[in-house]
């Protein structure tokens, strides 16, 4: 029985800041942002969007009534959850009207969370082949204004349904993974901003990829020539390129050129959204599938997931015969086209507009946010969500 990704979609806020303008305002050569790390635009989330609403908006795009009835497990991967007890999945479950006879949980391991959710979902479908699992990867990356990590911020969510006989990508059985206690990136419970050792994180990412790739080759018998493309977790779009370059050396030239070209296509969406943590690998997959129009059915796609702290995994999937019928290419094109550029001062003001942490009641103006699902405020320490489409 084939198990894998049946549907996939994403959502990013309607606001962005231009990286050239951000660089100039920070007295930095714009090339360091646009070429050095490979970022052109950075999504800016208004206060009416959090990890719950981003995920719910992403899922709203792909789910129909039949999906909502078949889904009996919602798994939400995030490192920017909104509650230390109640899972973000429960909020999404209610906002979307999913079958009440379902499990709903939140999982966490930095940017690896959504991959852990997918692997968990595969096991569930193997035991319950008539059901579907909704997997969500949603985050808002915050490092602080004028911080060293500011240029690698972003916001967005990816939603996937995992099922038997999937429409898009059948996931193969073999995968390779590893864990090591590394302090390359972390966010203590008392902080709304992350801490990062950038040099160490880059080194660990590259090292993890080399190790799990070797392990995967030994397990599967596959080599680079067997892949049409390899997609990566992308905290910034040059990161995957740095990890891929060393392993390409022994591949035939035509294989090297194919993988490098397809890697570049896979970064298109990420370079215009920024880092979305748990969803970034799957945003790069969406970019590849929607932007590379001549990807053939039966192609093998590799996926490298990395979550600081650290856990890494390499796995693969086979493109299904009619996978293009399940994509939301036009919808995503329109979403990008309708975004609004904000100035750097406007971005800074939006960044500083945060929710109260003392239990204060607050009502937010959701009419300024075109998203269908928004955070409307806080009452008695409870977040108030609104689905405008209901």
Automatic annotation (TrEMBL):
Q: Hydroxymethylglutaryl-coenzyme A synthase C-terminal domain location, by residue?
A: 175-247, 256-350
Q: Does the keyword Transport apply?
A: no
Q: Which InterPro entries match?
A: HMG_CoA_synt_C_dom, HMG_CoA_synth_N, HMG_CoA_synthase_prok, Thiolase-like
Pfam families, A to Z: HMG_CoA_synt_C, HMG_CoA_synt_N
Keywords assigned by UniProt, alphabetized: Transferase
Q: Where is the Hydroxymethylglutaryl-coenzyme A synthase N-terminal domain?
A: 2-164
Name the CDD domains for this protein: init_cond_enzymes
Transmembrane intervals: none
Protein family per UniProt: Belongs to the thiolase-like superfamily. HMG-CoA synthase family.
Q: Which PANTHER family match?
A: 3-HYDROXY-3-METHYLGLUTARYL COENZYME A SYNTHASE, HYDROXYMETHYLGLUTARYL-COA SYNTHASE
Q: What is this protein called?
A: Hydroxymethylglutaryl-CoA synthase
Protein source organism: Virgibacillus siamensis
């Amino acid at each position: 029985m084939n198990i894998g990704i049946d549907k996939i979609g994403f959502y990013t806020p309607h606001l962005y800041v231009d990286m050239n303008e951000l660089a100039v305002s920070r007295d930095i050569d714009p090339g360091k942002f646009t070429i050095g790390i490979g970022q052109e635009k950075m999504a800016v989330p208004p206060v009416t969007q959090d990890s719950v609403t981003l995920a719910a908006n992403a899922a709203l795009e792909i789910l129909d009534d039949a999906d909502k009835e078949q889904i009996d497990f919602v798994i939400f991967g995030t490192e920017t959850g909104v509650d230390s007890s109640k899972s973000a999945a429960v909020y999404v479950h209610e906002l979307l009207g999913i079958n009440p006879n379902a499990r709903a949980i939140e999982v966490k391991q930095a940017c690896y969370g959504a991959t852990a959710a997918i692997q968990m979902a595969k096991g569930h479908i193997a035991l319950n082949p008539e059901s579907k699992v909704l997997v969500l990867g949603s985050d808002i990356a915050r490092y602080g204004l004028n911080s060293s990590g500011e240029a690698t911020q972003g916001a967005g969510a990816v939603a996937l349904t995992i099922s038997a006989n999937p429409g898009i990508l059948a996931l193969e059985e073999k995968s390779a993974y590893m864990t090591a206690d590394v302090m390359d990136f972390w966010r203590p419970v008392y902080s709304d901003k992350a801490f990062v050792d950038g040099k160490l994180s880059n080194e660990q990412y590259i090292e993890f990829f080399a190790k799990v790739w070797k392990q995967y080759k030994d397990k599967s018998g596959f080599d680079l020539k067997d892949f049409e493309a390899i997609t990566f977790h992308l905290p910034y779009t040059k990161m995957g390129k740095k990890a891929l370059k060393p392993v390409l050396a022994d591949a035939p030239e035509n294989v090297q050129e194919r993988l490098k070209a397809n890697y570049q296509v896979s970064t298109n969406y990420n370079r215009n959204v920024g880092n979305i943590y748990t969803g970034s690998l799957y945003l790069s997959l969406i970019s590849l599938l929607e932007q590379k129009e001549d990807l053939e059915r039966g192609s093998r796609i590799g996926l490298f997931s990395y979550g600081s702290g650290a856990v890494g995994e390499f796995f693969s999937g086979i493109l299904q015969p009619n996978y293009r019928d399940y994509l939301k290419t036009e919808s995503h094109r329109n979403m990008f086209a309708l975004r609004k550029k904000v100035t750097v001062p406007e971005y800074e003001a939006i960044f500083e507009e945060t929710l109260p942490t003392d239990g204060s009641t607050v009502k937010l103006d959701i009419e300024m946010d075109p998203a269908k699902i928004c955070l409307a405020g806080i009452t008695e320490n409870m977040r108030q969500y609104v689905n405008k489409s209901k």
